[in-house]
Amino acid sequence: MAHEVIHRCPVCHEPLHVVRLHCPACGTSIEGDFQAERLLALTTEQRNFVYSFLRNRGNIREMEKELGISYPTVRARLDQVIAALGLEPAQPQQGKDAPTRKEILEMLSRGELTQEQAMDMMKKA
Q1: Fewer Cβ within 10 Å of end Cβ, the chain: N or C?
Q2: Which of 72, 79, 120, 119 has the alpha carbon at shortest distance from 98?
């Protein structure tokens, strides 16, 4: 039975390296220092979010419905996934997609944002 790949050392919590690949069909094994796919570094919750994003073709309003969370929360989680992957997010455009100050404060009060994230969002709102 295959187990889910862990990406952090259970002792010191540093990133793990893939050093051995094995083919179960023919028994071939290859050893070395291989770069793991960045998506593996996401938490299970973050990967499930990505699957939802893909299933809904990036439609955040549909993700809201599927996940039962607010639009600003979907956006905040998307930003967290982008950061976890080490990607630079596109600069948000001012307008209907940017959360209002009220929405930001509501997200903060529900614990969906840290104070730092809320302050950054407020500066852009």
Answers
A1: N
A2: 72
For 94-111, what is the mean pLDDT? 77
- What gap in Å lies between CA 103 and CA 96, rounded to an integer? 12
Position 13: which residue type? H
Nearest to residue 97, comparing CAs of 79, 119, 116?
Answer: 79
34, pLDDT greater than 90: no
pLDDT, residue 90, reads 64
Domain residue spans of the chain: 40-124
Say how many residues make up the chain: 125
CATH of 40-124, one of 2.60.40, 1.10.10, 1.10.3470, 2.30.30: 1.10.10
